[in-house]
Specification:
By secondary structure, this protein is α/β, with parallel strands linked by helices. The protein has nine helices and six strands. A six-stranded parallel beta sheet has the order 3-2-1-4-5-6. Helix 1 links the parallel strand 1 and strand 2. Helix 2 packs antiparallel against helix 9. It is globular and about 45 Å long. It binds adenosine-5'-triphosphate. Adenosine-5'-triphosphate binds next to helix 1, strand 4, helix 5 and helix 8.
């Protein structure tokens, strides 16, 4: 069986240590060969990002530089079309074949919002879903929208090793170091002239300063 690959999409507006720990701990705990970061170009299921897709992509590249297990996929940023996860996974299947286990990494908040995503039911035919704990967002069937709760009960496996032998269709949860960091709070800090240090990598802070991002107009 080919090695499992983690797929980590997000707005990354900006990328921060919550994202980086999620990816690093997922890699270790779920036995992933690598993590492919996919910044969204034009995400349609949430408010428009505050800075351009190109800046968000460049910040992710700076944040992951030096980690040989992290790769960055710029296709959604370069596509002149809205970003949706199912077409992205279909593209990855064309590239990687149908057999490789793919694990879509989601924070618990993103997982609970899955039924608002374009063609969301098709996700399960394309990849597994690995849900990380996030402060303030319990992962329990009773707290999920009804159809997602049913899927969760049917597809949940306790041990990530059970996912390695098939390409997709399972759901696993994993505990990660709990970091109550959010891009929203970082943007608010920056707009108020506060310091975002130690919430995100210095290389990203330097990029934000050099390009004067997230300032009040
Ligand atoms: P925003 O505050 O703008 O909504 P965010 O910090 O949630 O942004 P996103 O780019 O929307 O960041 O998140 C990408 C993915 O990372 C999502 O699946 C989200 O649940 C997860 N994530 C983000 N921050 C954390 C965190 N601190 N702990 C665990 N997961 C996180």
């Amino acid at each position: 069986m080919p090695e499992a690959l983690g797929i980590f999409g997000g707005t990354f507006d900006p990328v921060h240590f919550g994202h980086l720990r999620l990816a690093e701990e997922a890699r270790q705990r779920l036995g992933l060969a690598a993590i492919r970061w996919i910044p969204a170009g034009d995400p349609r299921h949430r408010p428009a990002p505050q800075v351009t897709a190109r800046h968000r992509l460049d910040m992710v590249k700076r944040a992951v530089a030096g980690n040989p297990a992290f790769e960055v996929d710029s296709a959604e940023v370069e596509a002149d079309a809205p970003s949706y996860t199912v077409p992205t996974l279909e593209r990855l299947r064309r590239e990687l074949g149908g057999e490789r286990p793919l694990l879509l990494l989601l924070g618990a908040d993103a997982f609970a919002g899955l039924p608002t995503w374009h063609r969301w039911r098709e996700l399960f035919g394309l990849a597994h879903i690995a849900v990380s704990h996030r402060p303030g967002y319990p992962i329990e069937a009773a707290a999920l929208p009804a159809e997602l709760a049913d899927r969760y009960r049917a597809a949940h496996v306790a041990d990530a090793a059970d996912l390695a032998g098939r390409p997709g269709g399972g759901i696993v949860t994993f505990a990660m170091t709990q970091l109550a960091i959010s891009a929203t709070a970082i943007r608010e800090q920056l707009q108020q002239g506060g310091s975002p240090r130690y919430l995100l990598p210095d290389a990203v802070i330097d990029y934000i300063a050099a390009h004067q991002l997230y300032r009040l107009p």
